[in-house]
Amino acid sequence: MSTAVLSPGRLSGDIKPPPSKSAAHRAILCAALAGGESVLSPVALSDDIKATIGVAEALGASIRLCGEVLTVSGIHPDHREGGTLALPCGESGSTLRFFIPVAAALGQNAVFTGEGKLPARPIGVYLDCLPEAGVACRTKGGLPLAIDGQLASGVFSLPGDVSSQFITGLLFALPLLCGDSEIRLTTPLQSAGYIDLTLQILSEFGVAVEPIPGGWRVKGGQRYRAKTCTVESDWSQAAFFLAGAAFGSDLTLTGLRFDSVQGDKAALPLFEGFGVRVEKRVDGSLRCTPPSGRIRAQDIDAAQIPDLVPILAVTAALADGDSRIYNAQRLRIKESDRLKTTAALIQALGGHCEETQDGLLVHGVKCFTGGTVDGANDHRIVMAAAMAALAAQGEVTIRDAQAINKSYPSFFYEYNRLGGHVHGIHLG
Ligand SMILES: O=C(O)C1=C[C@@H](OP(=O)(O)O)[C@@H](O)[C@H](O)C1
Ligand SMILES: C=C(OP(=O)(O)O)C(=O)O
Questions:
Q1: At which positions is phosphoenolpyruvate bound (predicted)?
Q2: Where do the domains of the chain lie?
Q3: C-beta separation of 87 from 111 below 8 A
Q4: pTM greater than 0.95 (yes/no)
Q5: CATH number 3.20.20.220 given to 4-18+233-423
Q6: Closest atom, ligand 1, to C-alpha of 26
Q7: Cα 100 to ligand 2 centre (Å)
Q8: Domain 21-230: CATH architecture, name and number where available
Q9: How far is the centre of ligand 2, averaged over its atoms, from the C-alpha of 341 (Å)?
Q10: DSSP output for 342-361
C-alpha cells in the first residue's frame, strides 16, 4: 500500500501518453500465436502487460524486452505443455478473458488464477458457452478456473453488454480451429471500439473475420502471420491530461493517432464539450488549454467508453450545473465498483455526486476542498483523484496510489515532470 500526497497546482508542457494497453495486449497475443518472430514497440511494462507476457510465455512463446522493443517468437504449432498449466493473470481482466478461449483452442489444459478483484469479476459468459463447445470448466464461482479439453468450432451465442472482452477472446481463438464458427450477439454490443481494435490487429496479423448481422463469421484453419508493428498511444490515458487542462493546465499531447479506432478517442470531443480549448497543430500534437469560463456541464452516454467515466465525472464535478452519466452499469465490475468509488472520490474532495442504477448524477461545485481519497486499488480512480488535486483548495491524500502500476507506472513521474506536486510515493 502506498499513499500519495498532492498539493494543488497546474501542469504545463508536452506529454506523450503511454502505448495503448489494449493494443499491446492484443499485439502480444497475436504475436504469440504467429509463426516466426514479431517485433512490437513501444511496449511499456505495466502490471497488466506483464501478466499477458507471462501467460503467453507459459503457453510456449519466447519473449524478450530490450528497452521498449518487445520481440516475440510465436508458440510452435505442435507445442503443448503436459498436464495442467498454471496461468496467473494478475489483476488483468483482458489477459484472463482473452486467453481462456485461446488456451482452449490450443487444446491446453490450464488453471487460470487472478489477484485483487479479478477472481470476482464475471466469467459466466464463458461458463455458459465453452462446455457446449467441448471445454469443461471447473470453478467454485470465479477464479481459479480450470479448463480441460479442445475447443470445437460452432456457433457461439453470447451477450454483447457484459464485457466485450469475451467477444475479443473468441475472435482470437476461433480462427485457430479446424472448422468455421459464428459469434452471435444476444444483446446489443457495448464497448464497440474495443472490438474494432481487435479486428484491426487481427487483420494486421493476417487473420480475417467477416461481420454478419448481429455478429461475426470466422473461418477456421487460419494462420497468424508474424509482424513488426508500432503500438499506438493510449487515448484512455490521454483523457487524464485533458482533464488537467480543464482544471487550469496548459498541456500539449503528442503521439496520438487521430485515425485510431480506440473508442476512448471520444475523450477529445467530450472534453471540448466541457469547454477545454484544443488546438490541433501541424505536427499532429494537441495543445489543450483551460475553458474560458466555468467547465460546462453535459450529459454523457458511457456505453462505448467505460474507462473514461471516472475522469469525466471528476471533471463534471466542477462544472456549472448537473451532468448525468448513463449506460455505465458495467463500471460496477471493473477493478473496483467504479460508480461507487468515483462518487466516493468526488464526495471526499467536497464535491457532490450520486450513484444511479446505471451511472452517476454529478452536481457541479465551484472547487474541490481537498481531503483523503480511497484509491480502492483502482488505477483509474487514483489517476482521476490526482487530476482533481490540481483544482483543490487544500492537499489531497490518495490511498492505494500504487494501483497506477496496473496501466501507467510512470504516471506520477510524468505528473511531477509537468510541474505537479506529488510526494510520499516512490516514483517509478
Ligand atoms: O478489450 C479491452 O482492451 C478492454 C475492454 C473494456 O472492457 P469491457 O468490454 O468489459 O467494458 C475496457 O473497460 C477495458 O479496460 C479494456
Ligand atoms: C478495466 C480495465 O482493464 P481490465 O478489464 O483489462 O482489467 C481497465 O484498464 O480499466
A1: 21, 93, 121, 165, 338, 380, 406
A2: 4-18+233-423, 21-230
A3: yes
A4: yes
A5: no
A6: 3
A7: 16
A8: Alpha-beta prism (3.65)
A9: 15
A10: HHHHHHHTT-EEEE-SSSEE
